Structures are given as C-alpha cells and as structure tokens.
Amino acid sequence: MADPAVELSGDVSWIAEAFPLPDGRFEHVSVYLVEAPAGSILIDSGSFYHRERLRRRITQATAGRGIGAMILSHSDYPHSGNVPDFRRLWGDFEIVASCADAAAQGLPYARRSRIGGSLDVLGRTFRFLDPPLADRSHTSWIYDEASRVMFAADGFGIYHAEGETGFTSRDYAAGISEEAIHDFHKDTIVWLRYVDPALLMDALRAMFDAHPVSWVAPIHGAPIAAEDLDDYLEKLERSVVAVSEGYTVH
Amino acid sequence: MSREIAQGIHWIQELGPARTEIGESLLRRGAPWFDRDRTVHVPQNAFLVVGNESLLFDTLSPLGSDQIIEELESILGDRPLDYLVVSHPDVPHAGNTARILRRYPEARLVAPREPATHELYHLEDSLRVGVGDYLDLGGPLIQFHEATFLDAALSVWMSEETTGTLFPVDWLGFPLLDGEGLSFMDEVVDPETPDDELVDRLYEFHARVMFWFQYADVEKMKAETDMVLMRLHPLIIAPSHGPVIRREPQRLIQLMKGVVERVHNTGRVGVL
After folding, report:
1. pLDDT tens figures, B48-57
2. Is the ipTM reported for this complex over the cut 0.85?
C-alpha cells in the first residue's frame, strides 16, 4: 500500500515526495491531484527520480483510473520529467503548458495556457497567473477557482527535516521555520540577491488580494493553509530582505 | 550550417520558428527595427570548441536534434567529442543531451556544481564545475564562471581564455529577423545604430526571459554589470539566444543597464 495523498480541500490532494540534500535536509518535489468533473488532473508531473513511487501513489489516489489531464506550471525536469512515461501509462491525456514554444520545450502536443488567461480542463476552470517568485520565464502559477488553491510552482518552498515530508503548515506548531524559507529561496531563486524586497512583496500581496486562497500549494514546500499565509509572508519578507542585504556587489 | 567565430570555436545555430506573438507585440509598440513583412525568431545557439580535445557547450532544443548531430559529425569528422557542457538543464539548452551521448558515448558530461540536485536532471554522473575551474583542451583553455544573470539556479557561464570569448548563456539574448541567422552582431545591425534601438531589441528578449528585472534594485544591477565587465572583460561575447558580438562587446554590456531600467519600469512583455 502506497502512502496516501494528503487531502487539502475536498477535491484537491497533495502527493508529497522529497529529494535528499547533502546537508541532511530534504526538498519537496511533489505533485497535486485535482478531481474535476471529467477526470483527475495532475498538477505537474513530478520528477523521474520519484517515477515509480508516483505511479503507484497516483494509481492508488485515483482508484486505478489514472489521470485524465496534466497542467504544467513550467517545463523544468522536476516538474515535467514524467510526461512521456505517464502518457504511455495512462493514454495520451491532455497536457496544458505555459511555454510560448511548446515544441522547443519537447511538448509539441501541449495546449498552451497564457499568463493572465484561464482554461477549462476536464470541466474545471483554472486561471494562469504571472508569478512574482519564479525562475523560468514561462512559469505560471495556477489558481483553481473552485477550491481557491494556488499552485505556486517554485515559489513558497522550504527545506524540511526527515519525517516532515507530509507536513502541511498546520503541522508546524510554531509555523514553518524562517530558516527553512530563507535557505530554500536563497539557493533556488538566485536573482533574489538583486531584488528590491518591497517591489516583490507588494506584487505577492496584490496577487493574494486579487485571488483569495484556501491553500498555497508549492511544488517544493509544504502546503500553506490560508490561516498560516500571513505568518509565511512575514517570514518570507524577512528572508528576502536578508538575501538581498546579504549580497553585496564586489 | 555552422560558423567559426574564432580559432577553433564553431557556432551552431537553430534559428527556431517564426514567433508571431512577439511580432505582434513589436508591431503594437512600434518597435523601430521590425515591420510586418518580416518574421522574428529567438535563436538557440550551441558552441563547439576544438583543440586537441573538443567540447560542446549546450545542445540546441529538441527541434534541433538532427541538426546538432549533423553539425557535430560535419565538424568533428572521425574525431571524438570529449566534453559536453550543459550550461543549465533547460530543455532548449540541454534537451539533446541523451542523444548526443548516445552518438558520442565517450564524451564526458559536464554540469554546474551547485545546487546539488543533479539527480533530478539526469546529471548525477557528470563532472561538476564552478567558479575558477578550468578545462585545458590542448590549445583552447576553458574557464567556468558564476552565471551572474540567470534563470535556473543550476547554471554556469564559461569562457575560452585564449580568444577572450565569453559564453553568458541567457544574458544578452537578441531576437533576430528572417535572414539574420548565423550573423555576427555587426552584420545584423550597423555599427552606427543608435543605442536606443539596440536597447529595444535587447529589451524584447530580457523583458520575457529575465522578467525578474522588474523586481530588481536597478542600481545594484548596474553595479553588477560593471563588475561583470571588469572581471571578465570579454573580447567576444557568444550568447545562447542572439548574434555573436565581436565588435564593441563593452558597449553591449553597458547597454544592459538601460535594459534593466526599462524592464523595471514596464514589467514583463511576455514569455518565451
């Protein structure tokens, strides 16, 4: 029996996987499942590093049906590396991808999502948002209107300790640690060393004002429940300031 | 087709499809270097450095899969490929890695040293390189550098020291028009072209790929640009998404300050 998915809302669940780092901590490389009227939608494909586990866990979570569509936040390998294998396994289901030139990204069959637009996927509406915290230019954050879950791709990640892979923000008594937020963003979104923190944080807060969330659902971190978001944002802001002020041009 | 840009450095270019969305954007904002009878392209470059040993920097995109193999075979003939360097594991830069390694199984895969997530990219068996590392190809001397202006964290820049050629990957990208493929910057634009027009072309690329300039501290970015110029002082610039720059490389680097300022003021114009 594979580990069960973690239910976030009634029809959105999290399949948490993690990659071990040299310092003993772990980085999430997860996927999410959304139950739509016409089938199950996988948000990102996960990494080929976890391919066999993901196959088992997705099969279990969908009661053997597998997935009917996949929405990619972007086409970086830890997010999209299982596309060919999963399409062979579960049929040539629809791929929704945000890149302008899908063929150059190795996804010639993908339907394009556009930042600022929305799409109906298997009978469910998703909005595609311009992500202030991202690395690749074609990344979009994916907002599920029905559940108000914001799938945040590379933003809002953390590093975590062994045994915490399935933790959501609600499982951290003192909230998600600022160190975990800081270290993840410093290492993975390198341009933060040049950032004007106020500009970035204003953009993030404006996004959440416009799109109220029930959960923020990162690929590389623990899902953040709405009631924990302010705490996370305060820690993120201090982290971003520390990254920016900690880097001097020399 | 390839072109030798300096002794032993071969430039292989995939021009890519016509980017109608970018063309429409250029028409809307009245970009002076574009008109509706032209097509605009975002090229993908790879560079093959040949001395006693050979090194390929990036692989072209999946659309250029046959092309890269044909070019390698044409340039190398019966010689082996010794190193395949992946600047960063984005599909358009690294998407033909497996095929090239099948064709040249003796080639050593080379990847950026940090962060240590190589197994997420099938780079676990690679030689890891970072700031200050060298590869002596027997003639050409390769040095690796921090990827200062980048998208993916797992990135590296490279230079060839005997010719002063810098390979800054996604930085200094420059959209091309039909007929401008595999042309040096001085063949694409007249040296008398005003700075504003050059900035406008650079802007069209960076306001997509380096969307994060909109959140940057502009003065810090300008200082870093000066530092890159002082530290690396390239004589030739060989970017991954634009023409090779062999004249006035310092001018183009200085113009990037205006690009940062403009993206900061306008926000992004789209995606790639």
Report:
1. 999 999 999 9
2. yes
